[in-house]
Each structure stands twice: as structure tokens, then as C-alpha cells.
Amino acid sequence: RFCLPLVLASLPAMATGEEIPPALQDSWGDFWLFRFFVNAAGYASIVVPGFLLIQYFKRRNYLETGRGICFPVIKSCVFGSEVKSVHQEDGSLPPRVEPTESSTARQVFKLLFCAAGLQASYLTWGVLQERVMTRTYGATETDPGEKFKDSQFLVFMNRILAFTVAGLYCALTKQPRHGAPMYKYSFASLSNILSSWCQYEALKYVSFPTQVLAKASKVIPVMMMGKLVSRKSYEYWEYLTAALISVGVSMFLLSSAPNRHVSTVTTFSGVVLLAGYIIFDSFTSNWQDALFTYKMSPVQMMFGVNIFSCLFTVGSLLEQGALLESLRFMARHSEFTAHAVLLSVCSACGQLFIFYTINQFGAAVFTIIMTLRQAFAILLSCLIYGHTVTVVGGLGVAVVFMALFLRVYARSRMKKRSKKLPPGETPVQKV
């Protein structure tokens, strides 16, 4: 809750770094595509041996024949308990506590607490993210300063703290008996790392408001994929809101003031990275939803995913020699150290606020709060970092968020109506 005031107090310092055009600062070794394949090779050096070991233990039927001190660890990592639970009503989370008339004031306080926590955590995170990725550190009158370039190190910082927080929470509170094979977390972990990396890298090529609108419009590719692959059916309001989002995003992008540093290459790179973020993030959420068929809490999910995230990122950083270089950068620039630590704190706290909000008030309230957060994030970014938005672009942003709120309202109405349907009828599947 106190992160946002701290950031607002330090806004002048955050905006002082000089922005360097990506086309002028990147050598071929810093180009995002090269870095992507280098990082992927590092992850493969861990994934491939792990995959071979898992196949070896399964072929040997180790669950039946294994013995010794390593048996419990191998059983937990490869086989688990294989006991699945029936889906909850929302498919992933335990039943939320319904508010009662006698505790209205308490529920209002909880709602305000959740809203303030989410807004403070993620608005601070967004401001810091743009500061770290687009501005220099150590700039003086004679020295232009240097820019931090390794997005993977920032992902590692976020994940190591999230892993620590989730581990402490699981140790101090009662959790369901864990049954999922540990290796299954690695799939969501890998896609989560890649989506976060794409998100950081995209800020080198597109503005933060553009990135936020791209996140808001990811419902469109999800619907297209559902229609083409799964033959899903959607209602008229879903097509209407998807069309409104497309129109709003197009208005914003086409009306943005031209930047003299932007080239076709950098624009294309930004679009590809944003597409990569949406694809990897969509896979993460779907895979996590499948994992929730095992009896586990959201914090256990957070712990399991972040174990592998830390393993993958630190392994890749050590193989590249980038971990020591990033630590040297932190030693040279104490301001960057403070930003990186606060970035990680906001990310970890934000995840806990997500779980608590959905558990207490449901997904619809959470979606409204996070949609408002996206609007506030665009406004803050424009105020702090001087992004120009034309009148048409502002209307486009308004259209996007109006469509998002319309989706939340229509979905809640459909959910209420589906509860009243006769037993033999089922509502149309939605995204």
C-alpha cells in the first residue's frame, strides 16, 4: 500500500535519465532476437536433461521399483500423488467468502484494501518498469550514463522474491496436501519467463501506453484461436466488444504522434515482442488452469512455478556470464538497485493481492480493478515520461476500456442467467 507514495515522491528522479533511441544503442549482440535464442539455449540446457531423466524414471517404472533415500524426492518431482480434485466453480480457486449483510462495512473495507493494494503494487511496478528499461543511469553533464539491457536479470529478481514470499506463506499457513508432479510446473514457468522477458524487451521499441493497450486487446487472438481450433461459440456481445477493442487500439496506434527515432525495424520488433508476450501469457494461464485440477492452493501454484523460474533464469544467466555483469551494474548504480528491488517487491505483493481479491470478491470485481489500473497506468506514464496522446488517440483508449467494462458487465449478467437455466441446458462457452 505504501509503494505508490514512495514512487510519486521520487518521480522527478525517475524521469531524469536520458532516453536513448533503441536503433542507435543496440549492437547485434544486444538485438532482442539474438538474446532470445541465447536465453532459449540456456533454458534448453536444463529442460532437455530434465526431460530425459523423467522419461528414464517412467520407463523404469520407478514408482513401483524405486527405493532409497532419493525415492521421496523423485516420486514428488516425477509422479506426484496423482490424486486430482474436482474443479471448483471458477475452475481454479477455492470458494470465495460471500459477503453478509451483517458485515457490510467490513466487506467495504476489504474491497478498498484490495483495490488500494492492487493499484499501488501494479502502478508502481509499471512506472518502475518503464524507468528501468527506457532511461539511463549515472548520467552527468559530461557522461551520458549507461542503460541496463538484460531483461532476464529483472525477471530473475522478480521470481526469486516471489518464490521466497510464497515459500514463507506456505510454511506459515495450512495448505492442501500437494499432489501434482513437480515437473508439470516447469511448462507454466517457462512460458511465464518468456512472456515477462518479451514484456520488458518490448519497452525498448514501443511506448508503455501501447504495451498496455496490447495487453487489453489480447482477448481478440484468444477468441480467434478458440473459434479456429476448438470450434467454440461466442455470443453477439463478445464479437461487439472485440470489434470495439480493435477499433480503439487502431485509433490509438494510427493517431500517435510520429517519433523521429522510430523506424520500421523497431516498430516491427515491438509488435513481434508484444505478440510473443500475448502468446506465452495465454499459454501460462491455460496451463495453470489445467494444473488446478490437482488439489492445490494458488500460493502453492505460485511457489511451484517460481521454483522453476528461478532455476531457469539463474542457470541461463550463469551460462552467459550475465549474472555477474548485472550485479556489477547494481554495484555501480545504487538507484538501479533500489528500482530493481522495489520492482520485485511490487510484483510479489501484487500476486498475493490477486489471490486474495479473487478469493474474497470473485473474478469480476478483480477484472474491474485491474482494468482501472491499466487506465491509470497509461495516464501516469504520459504524465511522468511525457508520452503524447492526441485527441483521437485518447478517444481510442476510452473505447478500449469502455469495451472491457462492457465485457465484465455482460459476463456477470450471463453468469447469473446461466444459474437459472434448466438442468439440461448449458450456456454458450465464453472467453
UniProtKB/TrEMBL annotation:
Family as reported in the entry's similarity comment: Belongs to the nucleotide-sugar transporter family. SLC35B subfamily.
CC terms in the record's Gene Ontology section: endoplasmic reticulum membrane; Golgi membrane
Organism of this sequence: Podargus strigoides
Transmembrane stretches, start-end: 33-57, 108-128, 153-172, 236-255, 261-280, 301-318, 338-356, 363-386, 392-410
Top-rank taxon, per record: Eukaryota
PANTHER family the UniProt entry points to: ADENOSINE 3'-PHOSPHO 5'-PHOSPHOSULFATE TRANSPORTER 1 (PTHR10778:SF13), SOLUTE CARRIER FAMILY 35 MEMBER B (PTHR10778)
Pfam families per record: UAA (PF08449)
Stated name of the protein: Adenosine 3'-phospho 5'-phosphosulfate transporter 1
Entry keywords, A to Z: Membrane, Signal, Transmembrane, Transmembrane helix, Transport
Chief localisation class: membrane
Compartments in which it is found: Membrane
Membrane topology, from the record: Multi-pass membrane protein
UniProt-listed InterPro entries: EmrE-like (IPR037185), SCL35B1-4/HUT1 (IPR013657)
Molecular function via GO: 3'-phosphoadenosine 5'-phosphosulfate transmembrane transporter activity
Position of the signal peptide: 1-17
